[in-house]
Write a structure and sequence with these properties.
The chain is an alpha+beta fold and 167 residues long. It is built from two helices and six strands, in the order βββαβββα. The protein has a six-stranded antiparallel sheet. The longest helix has 58 residues. The protein is elongated and about 90 Å long. It starts with 5 loop residues before the first strand and ends with a helix.
C-alpha cells in the first residue's frame, strides 16, 4: 500500500483444497466488515480476477463494462482499484486488492506497473516459502521413516545372528 500511496486493500490466499480465496489480511475502512471471507472463482471482482489470472487496473468501476453487475455494490469511497493475482509457476497463490488511494484520485498506469512488479516478487517469495515448508515437512517425514527403519534393523540383529548360528 505504501508503495503507491494507498491506505486500503486486502490480501487473499488461494486454498487449493476448498478452491477458495481466503482473506488473510485487510486494511482500511472496510476491514471490520470483511473478516472471514472466502471467495469462489468468478464470484465478485476478486473471484473474477483470480479466475482470469491477470492483473487489473480499474480507473472507475462505474464505467468499466467488465464489472457492470458489481459496481452498484462496490463499497469503497473511491471507484478506482488495482487487483493483482499472485501467480508463480502457472499456479494461483493468492490475490492482492488495493482499493483506496490516499489522494482519492484514480490509480494511474504507473501505480499499476509498480504494484504489478511488486506483486510478481511477492508471488515468487510466497511460492518459495511454501516450497520450503513443504520440503521441510517431507524431510521430517523421511527422517522419521529412517529412524523407524533403524529401530527395526536394530531389533532384527539378534535374529540375524541366530540365523547365522543356525546355518
Amino acid at each position: 500500500l505504501a508503495l503507491i500511496d494507498a491506505h486500503a486493500g486486502s490480501f487473499f490466499v488461494w486454498d487449493e483444497y476448498s478452491k477458495d480465496l481466503v482473506l488473510k489480511a485487510a486494511r482500511g475502512p472496510e476491514r471490520g466488515r470483511v473478516q472471514w471471507i472466502r471467495i469462489k472463482l468468478h464470484q465478485g471482482v476478486s473471484g473474477w480476477i483470480a479466475e482470469k489470472g491477470y492483473p487489473v487496473l480499474v480507473t472507475d468501476i462505474r464505467t468499466d463494462i467488465r464489472f457492470a453487475e458489481i459496481s452498484a455494490r462496490y463499497p469503497y469511497q473511491t471507484h478506482s482499484f488495482l487487483s493483482l493475482p499472485l501467480i508463480a509457476g502457472n499456479k494461483l497463490l493468492g490475490l492482492i486488492n488495493i482499493t483506496e488511494k490516499e489522494s482519492r484520485q484514480p490509480f494511474t498506469k504507473e501505480d499499476f506497473e509498480r504494484a504489478r512488479t511488486f506483486a510478481g516478487h511477492i508471488a515468487v517469495a510466497f511460492d518459495n516459502i511454501r516450497t520450503e515448508n513443504r520440503l521441510r515437512a517431507e524431510i521430517q517425514e523421511l527422517n522419521q521413516t529412517v529412524a523407524g527403519l533403524r529401530e527395526t534393523l536394530k531389533q532384527q540383529e539378534p535374529l540375524v545372528s541366530l540365523g547365522k548360528l543356525a546355518s
